[in-house]
């Protein structure tokens, strides 16, 4: 049953990315180009993701998952080295390619060779990230 719901949720998410234009790299880069030919339409996609998630986090405080297990803990609200480093790397990749993890997987079948190269680079980054985090954590904290 959990697998079925995961499949339905993933399919709905992928369809939403496709329908919203998040798999169109030109549209995403237009959203990020605030000093050029800016395309503000993806603000509705962002709002459509942020608002339900805010409600979902409130919902998880008082309930248990219907399909068993536990909800993940809320993210740490502090700004730290890992969050800033990860955010900068995510933003650089998103700005350079117009893709982030969800849309890159959703567009894997029609993204061409550049989409496959992105998926390979993303996978490599995911494998190397724990090693990079360990090195960052070993550095002394800034005052």
Give the SSE layout.
Elements: H1 2-20, H2 25-32, H3 42-62, H4 81-97, H5 101-106, H6 112-138
Helix pairs in contact: 2-4
Any overview of this molecule?
The chain is an all-alpha fold and 143 residues long. It has one domain (2-138). The chain has helices at 2-20, 25-32, 42-62, 81-97, 101-106, 112-138. The longest helix is centred in the last third of the chain and has 27 residues, at 112-138. The chain is globular and about 45 Å long.
- The helix-and-strand class reads mainly alpha
Helical stretch tally = 6
Ranges where pLDDT stays below 50 over 5 or more residues in a row are none
Largest sheet: none
Overall average pLDDT: 85
Helix content: 55-70%
Amino- and carboxy-terminal Cα gap: 50 Å
Number of domains: 1
Radius of gyration: 18 Å
Strand content: under 5%
- Spatial shape: globular
User: How many E-type strands?
Assistant: 0
Helix-strand sequence: HHHHHH
């Amino acid at each position: 049953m959990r697998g079925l719901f995961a499949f339905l949720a993933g399919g709905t998410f992928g369809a939403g990315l496709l329908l919203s234009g998040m798999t169109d790299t030109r549209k995403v880069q237009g959203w990020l180009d605030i000093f050029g030919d800016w395309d503000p339409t993806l603000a509705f996609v962002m709002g459509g993701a942020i608002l339900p998630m805010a409600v979902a986090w409130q919902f998880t405080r008082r309930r248990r998952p219907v399909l068993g297990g536990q909800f993940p803990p809320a993210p740490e609200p502090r700004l730290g080295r890992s969050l800033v480093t990860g955010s900068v790397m995510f933003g650089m990749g998103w700005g350079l390619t117009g893709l982030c993890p969800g849309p890159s997987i959703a567009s894997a079948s029609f993204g061409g060779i550049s989409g496959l190269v992105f998926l390979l680079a993303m996978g490599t980054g995911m494998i190397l990230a724990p090693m990079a985090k360990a090195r960052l954590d070993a550095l002394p904290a800034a005052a």
